[in-house]
Design a protein that fits this description.
Elements (H helix, E strand, L loop, with lengths): L2 H23 L1 H26 L12 H14 L76 E7 L13 H13 L11 E2 L4 E3 L3 E6 L2 H5 L11 E10 L4 E10 L1 E6 L2 E5 L13 E6 L4 H7 L6 E4 L3 E3 L5 E9 L3 E10 L14 E2 L20 E2 L6 E2 L8
Length: 399
Amino acid sequence: MSASATAPVQDSKRFKKRWFAYFGANSLAVSILLHVLFGVGATFLIVEHFQKKHVNFHATEPPSQHTEVEHKVELAKRNNVESAPPDLKRIVTKDVSSITLPEPPEVPTTDEANPTSMAGVDGVMGMGLGNGMGKGGSGGGGGIPLFGAPDGTGLEGDFYDLKQTPARKPTDMTYGQFYIELHNYVDRGWNEALLSRYYKSKDPLYASTLAISTRDSGEAPKAFGLEKEVQPALWIVHYHGRVIAPQSGDYRFVGFGDNVLVVKINNTTVLDAGWDFLTNNPSLHQLLPFACPKYIPIARRDRPSWDPHLRIGPVFHANAHVPMDMDILIGDDGGICNFFLLIEKEGEIYGNGEGGFVAYPFFQIGDKGGAEFSVGEEHPPYSSNSYPWQDAKSNTASP
């Protein structure tokens, strides 16, 4: 073989020996190369893994409807009448916001009306539980008729049957429409024109107090002499007149009605205490601890939202000797009915009645007598002594 032919072969051998010596002998270079390759592979695997397993820590699914329902049911159970802590039975709500009534014209006077029938020591009002024969119309125990008397003193009450027209034609009134009509009536300022399409009692009755324990719904039309013309259910009574407070001060109404009880003073609603509220203002029906026990099973059976507790309205101011317009709306959708209207004067100290509940006096006009109940008749604890208000019609010193 010539020297020119063997030269490339020798060069190739020398190249291989040089690189072999470099990589084989230099272990540090080999280690670096392996680490580089491992790092590239690990980086690739990590990137692939987190792209597939990425978690969004800000997005959460809303609770299921079933969970929300269970939560509401649990809250309702906590508010159940029987589960109220015993201490609540002796608490009187005092944080109800006050309202400002339209100011009537002031009548010159030199002194305030003297309260009557007051008892007790150091400003504490006497308390009675109203034992004895019940005062009731429609065959009650005598005394003041439940829905009023035709004597012309007190608030004048007009009965309306929403089931028929003035010509006694059926209106096909339904349960739902009944409350729609009453909502509209209250929202529109108790405009009597809205009731002109319904059958109205010919002769009014005059009420001096509302202390009507459980009665059949037919007792109301019977009291107005309409038992032959009006079937029970879906009726209302609008009482209206002018009254005078016995003393200047801040007052609040307390009450409960099955199904409707709304009170207005000087064109301002001051209480909405029926089972079916006709206003959306929660200050008009603040809850008091006292419940009507006989109504609890009915409320639970017919409608869970019904709460047979006394309600208390916001504070309003009244001046002695100054007549004030007053309206009361009661109504029933059938079955049994029940209406209690009591009153509180701010600053007075009231005793406790049965069960430790505060015993407010019933709202009363004139001196016909206060509320009385027969043995076994359900009623809230109440004071048998009160400051009777006056009927402006019978007060000759007032305009």
